[in-house]
Amino acid sequence: MRTISVVAGLALIAPTAIGGVSGPASVAWLNSEADTIVVARVLTASTLPDGGVSAQLDTLRILKGTSVPPVLQVELKPSPILKMNAGSARNLPNGNTGLWFLRTGTGGKFDILPTDAGDYIWGDACYLAVPDAGPGGAAGSIGERVLTEIIGGYRSVAADQHPGQEWKFHSAIISSAPEDVRRALGRLYLDSNLPLRMRVVALAGEISHSFPDAILRLDRDFELLSKDERFGLILWDISYMYKCGDPATVAPLIQLLSRRRSFPRLEEATAGALARTGNKHALRGLALLLDSSDRQTQFRASRAFWQFAEFANEEGEISVGTERPWRSDEARQLKPEWKSFLQAPDRYVGFWKKWWAENRGRLGYAE
Prior knowledge:
The chain is α+β, with helices and mostly antiparallel strands and about 375 residues long. Helices cover about 45% and strands about 10% of the residues. The longest helix is centred in the C-terminal third of the chain and has 17 residues, at about 295-310. The radius of gyration is 24 Å and the shape is elongated.
């Protein structure tokens, strides 16, 4: 099983179009496009002359579909990826159980989705490995049941034997519908014996969906969670995925920043999230980051202040309108560029600290 980097893991969530070779499909896309979703065991498998894969499956659980036969004949259509990996059927050893996304084909056969992608987001050619035994209490929507099966699959794998599994589980959470993530992971957290690795990856996935309560749980359990080697996933999702456009989503990040002195990496992550906000609610947190000892964090905070002053309207929202009440000649001259910032960082940081002190009351953030 290959190890997937953080960047690659996140790059694998884009939907795949039928008939294209753009890459693996998202879980939400698969749930929608498949007319049959099953947990099934491989009975036989072979590579076809045209480069595709054919398999016979023993149906164990039906998550979506009607009139699903107990034995399924499935095929994965040939693609450039499959043709470059001869012997693809070796990924389907007899007896393996997996979660399969299918579409009714011709002649009583089913096509494996996505039909023109050689890899699913989990790195297997056709399916996600899950246990034979079904997860308890797997009720709810199709998406919730699918994610519950995925959770069971990840939990059944020994982390030291398959170090890439956390990226696959993480990608599955990111690419599932938010309501399915909230319900499925909500049940997961009720388990007092939940391994730390699963708590970390699941929480990262929730943060990617911008759940404010996930940031609050991170703050509450920070000492424990930050000790896990997968904690970088959480920081990544805060920086690049967490959307915090209102007070309810910004406030937990500002609370989390109280830990920045003992855990400096939090500054870079929160700077990424706050700099993407595009309104006045992020400025309180960005003002704290102007005092960072990390120049890149200071630069991102200064740049975000400049963007606000240059483009925000009276209500404190960055907009495309012509109203520019926060713009000034001095602020425009102090547009932070990385090279010039490094030459005189105190000039930029000092200006934007002064700007914040002068304007925070007008923005509704008095001392």
